[in-house]
Amino acid sequence: MSNRIKLRQLRAYQAIMTTGSVSGAADRLNTTQPAVSKHLAALEEAIGMQLFIRRRGGPMKPTHAGVKFYKSIEGTLSGIDNIADIAREITDHSSARLRIAGTEPLINSQFLAGALTRFKSDNPNVRFSLDARHRLDIEEWVVSRQADFGLALLPVKNPLISAHAFVTAPAVAIVREDHRLASKDALSPADLAEEHLILPSRQPLRTQIDLAFLSAGISFDIDIEASSTMTCCRYAAEGFGIAICDPFTPTAFQDTRFRVLKWQPEVLLTYGALFNKDDERSEVIEQLLSCIKQELDAQGF
Q1: What is the CATH code for 7-81?
Q2: Whole-angstrom Cα distance, residue 60 to residue 128?
Q3: Average pLDDT, the chain
Q4: Which of 118, 137, 183, 218 could be bridged to 133 by S-S, CB 3.0 to 4.6 A?
Q5: Domain 172-266 carries which CATH code?
Q6: What is residue 134's DSSP assignment?
Q7: Which residues pair with 265 in a beta bridge?
Q8: DSSP-derived 3-state class of residue 176
Q9: CATH 3.40.190.10 fits 93-166+271-298, yes or no
C-alpha cells in the first residue's frame, strides 16, 4: 500500500460516492470524466483496494470495502471542506462553530431545538454543524475530534470518551389517536399481546423491551422492525401498529394523530454528552450544556 494519496484523488472518490457516477462527479468537480477515472484508479492503487464495481453504461456501485472505507474517511473529508471556515473562526474571535454529532432522536428533538434557541439568543454569532449519526459513528467522531461533542444514550464503554449525563427519562409507547388503547394512561406487555408491534432493532432499548415481554410470559409478533425510532413513530402515526421508543423521538413530529403513553414496566434511559476525555470543555460548550438542561427542565423531562 502506498502512502502517496492525493487530496484530488479523495475528492474524486467523494464526488462519485455522492453523485453515483463518474459523469456526475466530473460535473461537480468541474473537470473531465477521464480525469475523475484517473484519480479513482490512482487512489485504488495507492490503498490496494477496489472501491467500485464498474458497469458499462450503468451507475457506479461501491464494493463492500468501498462503503466501509468511505464511512471511515467521511468525517475527515467533511473537515477538509470546512478548513476555510475553521481558519476564519480562529482569526475572528467574535464567531465560533460547534460541531455536534448525535443520534437521530436527539438531533431532531424538540429539546435540542429549544436549547439552541436559548443559546443563540445570547450567542448570535455561534454557528452549528449538526450530524445525525449511528451511535458507534458518534464515538469515532468524538475520539477523532471530528465533532466537538456527541449526544447519545449512555453508558459509554470507550475509555477514550468521557460522558456528561443530562437526563434520565422513561421509554414510551406510541399509539394512533383512534386506536382502542389510546385512552389508556399506560401500556404493558399484556395490553399488546394481540397487537401489531413496531419496534426498534439492534438498540439497548430493544433488549429491555424483549425482556419485559419474556418476564410477563407474553409472546409477541413484530410487524415492523426499524433501525430508526423516527421510523417507528412515523408508522405508528399511520396506524400500522403500536411503537415503543425513547421519549424524545415523538417531540420531533408535528403530527397530532398519535398519543404518547407510559410504558410499563418502566424502562429508564439516560442520555448525555460525549467528549474526548483529553479535551477541556470550552465556555461556549458549557453554556450550551446549561441551555440543554434548562430546556429539558422546561419540557418536564
Answers
A1: 1.10.10.10
A2: 33
A3: 88
A4: 137
A5: 3.40.190.10
A6: -
A7: none
A8: strand
A9: yes
